[in-house]
Amino acid sequence: MKSTADQGMTLLEVMVSAVMLAIFMAAFVAIMQLSAKLIKGVDSGGFTASELALARSIATERLNGLASSLAREEPAAFMEIIGATKCLTAQAGWNLANDGSRWSLSNQQLSKELTGTEQKGFIERVCIYPSKYAESATTPGLYVVQAEPKAAGPLLQPLRVLFCRPQNFCLQ
Amino acid sequence: MIGSIIGLLVMIALTTFMAALMQLSAEVLAPKKILTSAQKAVILQYWRGLPAPPPIPPAVAEVETEISKLLCELPRDSSGTYRSGC
Q: Which of A136, A147, B22, B36 has the most other CB atoms within 10 Å of its CB?
């Protein structure tokens, strides 16, 4: 005589397990595709995950340096940058008078005083965006300097640095 | 019996692996919705630099909200598309 435990699964159980397996496999495939994109560099401007991390790290450090230089720039010279050349591109660099630095884009990487071939970056332009808090003769202002890729995606995002200027008004 | 236990353990291991991968993906993909500590420090730096009233300085929270809104609306790439009202 056969026991009921040997009769196997009911149709409902089979259907539920099939659905659960399908959901599990779909999630697994989606995550594997994302991992493959990170490894192969698809959707990240041809960068692998490690190359992208290095390019972002270099760009972040230099963007902080640029923001620091901009914070020390004289108001008149800064307003000229904001007004005339709001964005730094490969064709138009920025000359900052306070420390005599020249910032430019080389091989899609932000450079100060270019001395050799740059490591490849992903920056198409660097722009300054003023906030609602504009500087005046008596109050400081807040600005965002942003390094933008040609086409943003989940793996290729812009870099941003918020800075306060003029520096003598912004307490450390 | 042993088969069920092994099956259960395999399922637990796979689910843990999937959860770890999901967390990694979320770290990579999630946009930064809140201000970073560095950005908050700059806001504090700005706020402390404001002169004593008049004018009445805006509250730090108000500045943080404004900057969060600005960062959200800024273009993501050189196409320059703004995301108004995000």
A: A147
Both ends of chain B: CA-CA distance in Å? 55
Q: How far apart are CA A98 and CA A77, in angstroms?
A: 9
- Compare all CA atoms of chain B with the CA of A138 and give the residue at the minimum distance: B51
The structure tokens listed for B82 are 């703004």
Indicate if the pLDDT at residue B20 is higher than 70. Answer: yes
pLDDT average, residue stretch A27-51 = 81
Q: How far apart are CA A73 and CA A79, in angstroms?
A: 9
SS3 A125: strand
Q: Looking at residue B79, what DSSP letter applies?
A: T
Is the CB of B55 less than 8 angstroms away from the CB of A139? yes
Most confidently modeled of A78-87, A151-160, A162-171? Answer: A162-171
Confidence at residue A171, expressed as pLDDT on a 0 to 100 scale:
78
Are A141 and A165 spatial neighbours (Cβ–Cβ below 8 Å)? Answer: yes
Provide the residue ranges of all domains of chain B, joining segments of one domain with +. Answer: 1-30, 31-76
**Cα–Cα distance measured from residue A138 to residue A13, given in angstroms and rounded to the nearest whole number:** 73
Is B29 a residue whose pLDDT tops 80?
no
Residue A37's pLDDT band (cuts 50, 70, 90): confident
**Looking at beta carbons, which residues of chain A come within 8 Å of B70?**
129, 131-132, 144
Judge contact between A101 and A131, C-beta under 8 A. no
Quote the minimal CA–CA distance from A159 to chain B in Å: 9
β-strand partners of A106: A109
